[in-house]
Prior knowledge:
Layout: H1 6-18, E1 28-30, E2 37-42, E3 45-51, H2 64-77, H3 85-89, H4 92-105, E4 109-113, H5 116-130, E5 135-139, H6 144-153, E6 156-160, H7 165-173, E7 181-186, H8 198-208, E8 210-215, H9 230-233, E9 242-246, E10 256-260, H10 262-271, H11 273-276, H12 283-298, H13 301-319, E11 332-335, H14 339-353, E12 355-356, E13 359-360, E14 371-374, H15 382-407
Parallel strand pairs: 3-12, 5-6, 5-7, 7-8, 8-9
Antiparallel strand pairs: 1-2, 2-3, 4-10, 9-10, 11-14, 13-14
Helix pairs in contact: 2-12, 4-12, 5-6, 5-10, 7-8, 13-15, 14-15
Amino acid sequence: MTSRYDDIFAESLDALKAENRYRYFVEIERLAGRHPVARWHAPDGPRDVIVWCSNDYLGMGQKDMVTYAMAHAVKTQGAGAGGTRNISGTTQPLVALERELADLHGKERALIFTSGYVANEASISTLAKLLPNVKIFSDSMNHASIISGIRNSNADKVVFRHNDVEHLEELLAAEPLERPKLIVFESVYSMDGDTGPIGPICDLAEKYNAITYLDEVHAVGMYGAEGGGMAQERGLQDRVDVIQGTFGKAVGVMGGYIASSDKLCDAIRSFGSGFIFTTALPPGIAAGVLASIRYLRKNSAEREGQQRNVALLKELLLEAGFEILPGDTHIVPVMLRDPGLCLAVTSHLLDKHNMYIQPINYPTVAKGTERLRITPGPLHTEAMIRDLVEALKLSYEAATKKTVDRIA
Length: 408
């Protein structure tokens, strides 16, 4: 049965396709023990491909200790949580995980959500509603969940230029000192691969009576002596009021959280509808996350291996003549600056070279800054990295030739 409004939906989808912005999903099957190799269920039959854009940055999603902890918890405690945290979902693995997270970040308390997106949306909107006449200061490159949380709060807000501390101070100084203020920014910006000026922003927060809310989703597990993130690496955890993170990236599982003071977390627990009315993370997921975080706190081999591979890939891409953004993180943005070219290159990589990278187009990034976002991990080999660069060169040449032929 079709909807009476399907013609309207089809028109909108056709416009996306005409602009090369339609999102095509590639069906891949993750293979435990073989990451970054996965099985692509292609139209002509399954074949193995190498994944170059996974957010399972360190391969923790296939780690034996993680999968065993999940399987054991499912076998002993069942598949589901049994309800919201209030009804019956405050399971022992969740409580243990919150204690571990609070300790990891040097905070009094942590609070777990079903995803990093929900953590941001619920926490930011609730904080803003609880602080009377609060004004929110948001970095211009903040991602969608932060923007959604700010919008849902209906609070007064202003956007400061990306990583521009002087602009932020101008905006803060324009407000009465006694007015509550909330500065929301990220430690690692996932599309450009650059980092936020955490220390200088904390200085401004102290000077102008503001709370700092730091999104560490692309840094938890990746940076710091225990994988606590960029604030931990820079010795600034105690100066950040709220640290937000995810389990769906370097930790290798799923879910999200905040870590902060006991009273702040309790307030969001008590007033945040995105927390109150959502079924809790199942015990199996919480147990897997706990095993992953405990491992990453004591072991740095995965982080070090990834950093070596990132450095090699950047070196080879520059030698090959590709434009990459000069970030200082594990994210390698290869700038193609055209949505059609991005799609053509990634399609050729997959079809001809069995390499999987998703194109990044508007609205995820601004028009004219379309790119490939590559995230090499510790389980990619040097041979894989060299093969990728060669395949990228061939795919780029094939894609640009097709474009020229089409214009001619």
